[in-house]
Amino acid sequence: MKIEETNVNELCGKAIAEQKNKVANSVTLTFHTSLADTDTIETDRHRTLQAINEMLANAIKNTTKGSILLDCRKIKNDQGTDSIAFCVTDTGCGIAPKHHKKLFERFVKLDSNKQGAGLELYICRTIATKLGGSITLDPNYTTGARFILTLPVVAQTATTLEEQQ
Q1: Which of 15, 80, 121, 130 is buried deepest, with most CB atoms within 10 A?
Q2: pLDDT averaged over every residue in the chain
């Protein structure tokens, strides 16, 4: 991991630009932020972009009409420190509650007819964990799916992350 100061809105804008041509014509892909254009976090820029792109790709694959929203905001995490929440909300097929627990496991595909190897969410979880964050599914959102990637504003050192493992 190469930790560096990263502009959050710029990173999200790049993810939207990389994914916009993959969205079905009947789907709108938008970005909303409550952050200032100057807000930054200490993170691995490449891996964070990869995680956001994986979440967007998952939404694109499962949304044939409606919308996909990437929303970014600052929150307080469970320890009371600042984090950034990257939320991807879609109006796709949704996820049955019986599948919620296994979503982030490797090679899990809920629809064998869909493209992919079932690694997108597993990769997101791995990246989030390595960066001191987390990824969750919002079980209360039922009009599709909402995934929330949370990363600390100030990165943990590699030594600290290794101690956690």
Answers
A1: 15
A2: 84
